[in-house]
Amino acid sequence: ESTVMEMYEANDKGAGIAWRDKGLVHWRKGLDEGEAVRAALSTELPYVMHFRTPSSGTSTLPGVCHPFPITAQVELNLEGATKGWTLFHNGFWPNWKEKIIDYAIKSGKKIPTGSWSDSRGLAWVAYNWGLGALELIDEKVLVFGPDEDDIELYGDKWVNYEFSPGKRVLVSNEHWKSWS
């Protein structure tokens, strides 16, 4: 509980969670601190959580919190389920707007409507060009799918963090620790 609270306080523009149940990946996002704590305490492992600080030039609306379903429209629903993958991202993808427009023009694909962030753009790229495209973008990304082994990490320097004796979680960074 205290670890989730620390993470939220350092990245307080919304949280999201994804978990598996009955062959689907379910998600909720746009969570406030209390909702994030309750979700962490009540969700069976494995699950993935993300605490958001928006990148410069991106929307701050709750639907732009992570995760994003890796689908054609990269929907902004605050909750849902998919038979496919969801995407979480930590970092800032430089020049993402120009790259998304360039990809759309060159491929003839229409850009989905709604609020955008570099992370939603990464999910759109992953849908259109496959998860392997994430290897080429050099961003810290986690994709979470419906099967037991469906967790893929991209980028380096993921941290195996011990939050209490014998209890470990994988985190994308430890910047949140300086807030406590």
What is the end-to-end distance? Answer: 13 Å
What sequence of helices (H) and strands (E) makes up the elements?
Answer: HEEHEEEEHHHEEEE
**Alpha-carbon Rg, integer:** 16 Å
Structural class: alpha+beta
Shape: globular
Largest sheet: 4 strands, antiparallel
SS elements, strand count:
10
Describe this structure in words.
Helix content is 27%, strand content 28%. It is an alpha+beta fold. The strands form three sheets. Strands 3-1-2-5 form a four-stranded antiparallel β-sheet. It has a four-stranded antiparallel β-sheet with strand order 4-6-7-8, covered by helices on one side. A hairpin with a 6-residue loop joins β7 and β8. The longest helix is centred in the middle third of the chain and has 12 residues, at 96-107. It is globular and about 50 Å long. The chain starts with a helix and ends in a 9-residue tail after the last strand.
Features:
180 residues, 10 strands, 5 helices, alpha+beta, four-stranded antiparallel sheet
List the topology elements:
Blueprint (H helix, E strand, L loop, with lengths): L1 H9 L4 E7 L2 E8 L1 H10 L4 E5 L16 E2 L9 E4 L3 E5 L5 H12 L10 H12 L3 H5 L2 E5 L6 E4 L4 E6 L2 E5 L9
Antiparallel strand pairs: 1-2, 1-3, 2-5, 4-6, 6-7, 7-8, 9-10
Helix pairs in contact: 1-2
